[in-house]
């Protein structure tokens, strides 16, 4: 039978003081209550822990052994209790985050850093995924959370707005339009426009294409041979433009810049969590809200 840990802690104080009056005062209880606790502990153990007389208190052999071995056992119990409490609060464990490559330039690194900083016992594993696969993976539990550009369809998940971002274009620094702080949509359509394959993110592809739907002449859309070519070689000709969110302005390749499109609606980035949420999911939501506020991601 496991001992009463409160009585055990009281005994350790008494073992240090070897005086019931001082030990009771240190603990903050009455001396008779302390004596009752020690008698109960001795009964549970089936052995005397103390030798008492009118003048002194001394440890028995069993008492000395318990005084030596109990502190590390209680410390281990405290650690186990704290670990369980933190796990129940979403502070420890493994968090699997799936994210679209387009959110990996700034949004996901900032969120992951904040999550890891918020709980030293929380292990975060972030994996790039095709955007259409993220919501289903969250719904069936293959990953714990997702970050997508655009409000992606899917059942069994909840979506939380994480970031609003302006739409603009990537272009060569020597491109004539790069001289403008903002580029008119009609001016951009005078050049070939690169859009990723629609299968990579139908929601955002259609949103970007819709920007130019009513512009004349109709734009010339191109699909790059190599998706997500970080060197942006197809823009270096100084002619082609690539519609993109403002995250593209973060650490662009040499010779490439980004300019916002005047009057264009914004893109959105969403945190995706399962419909039924644990304390870990609620913690992710709270951290995401904090980082969004700190980074000013939701400002108009």
The biggest beta sheet reads: 5 strands, mixed
SS strand fraction: 15-25%
**Could you tell me the mean pLDDT?**
85
* Total E-strand runs: 12
User: How many distinct domains?
Assistant: 3
| Helix count from the secondary structure assignment | 9
The CATH superfamily title of the largest domain: Periplasmic binding protein-like II
CATH first level of the largest domain: Alpha Beta
The SS-based structural class is: alpha/beta
Which range best describes the helical content: under 10%, 10-25%, 25-40%, 40-55%, 55-70% or over 70%?
25-40%
Radius of gyration of CA atoms, rounded to a whole number: 32 Å
CATH topology (fold) name of the largest domain = D-Maltodextrin-Binding Protein, domain 2
N-to-C SSE series? Answer: HHHEEHEHEHEEEHEHEEEEH
Poorly predicted ranges (pLDDT <50, ≥5 residues)? none
| Overall morphology | rod-shaped
How far is the first residue's CA from the last residue's CA?
62 Å
Give the strand order, joined by hyphens, for the main sheet: 4-3-5-12-6
CATH second-level architecture of the largest domain: 3-Layer(aba) Sandwich
Plain-language structure description:
38% of the residues lie in helices and 20% in strands. It starts with a helix and ends in a 6-residue tail after the last helix. It is rod-shaped, with a radius of gyration of 32 Å. With 300 residues, the protein is α/β, with parallel strands linked by helices. The protein has nine helices and twelve strands. The chain folds into three domains: 84 residues, Arc Repressor Mutant, subunit A (Orthogonal Bundle), CATH 1.10.10.10; 99 residues, Periplasmic binding protein-like II (D-Maltodextrin-Binding Protein, domain 2), CATH 3.40.190.10; 99 residues, Periplasmic binding protein-like II (D-Maltodextrin-Binding Protein, domain 2), CATH 3.40.190.10. α1 packs across α3, α2 packs across α3 and α5 packs across α9.
């Amino acid at each position: 039978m496991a001992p009463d840990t409160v009585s055990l802690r009281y005994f350790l104080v008494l073992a240090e003081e070897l005086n019931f009056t001082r030990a009771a005062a240190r603990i903050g209880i009455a001396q008779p209550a302390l004596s009752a606790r020690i008698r109960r502990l001795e009964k549970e153990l089936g052995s005397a822990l103390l030798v008492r007389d009118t003048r002194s208190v001394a440890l028995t052999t069993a008492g000395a052994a318990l005084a030596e071995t109990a502190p590390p056992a209680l410390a281990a119990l405290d650690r186990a209790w704290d670990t369980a409490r933190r796990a129940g609060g979403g502070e420890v464990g493994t968090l699997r985050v799936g994210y679209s490559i387009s959110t990996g330039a700034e949004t996901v690194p900032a969120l992951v850093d904040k999550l890891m900083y918020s709980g030293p016992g929380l292990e975060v594993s972030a994996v790039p995924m095709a955007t259409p696969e993220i919501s289903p993976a969250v719904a069936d539990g293959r990953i714990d959370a997702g970050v997508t550009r655009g409000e992606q369809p899917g059942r069994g998940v909840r979506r939380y707005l994480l970031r609003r971002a302006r739409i603009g274009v990537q272009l060569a620094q020597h491109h004539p339009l790069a001289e403008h702080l903002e580029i008119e949509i009609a001016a951009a359509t005078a050049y070939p426009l690169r859009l990723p394959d629609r299968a990579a993110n139908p929601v955002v592809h259609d949103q970007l294409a819709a920007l130019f739907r009513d512009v004349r002449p109709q734009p010339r859309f191109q699909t790059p041979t190599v998706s997500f070519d970080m060197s942006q070689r197809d823009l270096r000709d100084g002619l082609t433009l690539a519609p993109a969110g403002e995250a593209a302005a973060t650490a662009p390749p040499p010779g490439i810049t980004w300019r916002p499109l005047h009057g264009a609606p914004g893109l959105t980035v969403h945190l995706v969590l399962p419909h039924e949420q644990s304390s870990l999911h609620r913690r992710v939501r709270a951290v995401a809200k904090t980082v969004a506020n700190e980074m000013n991601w939701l400002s108009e």
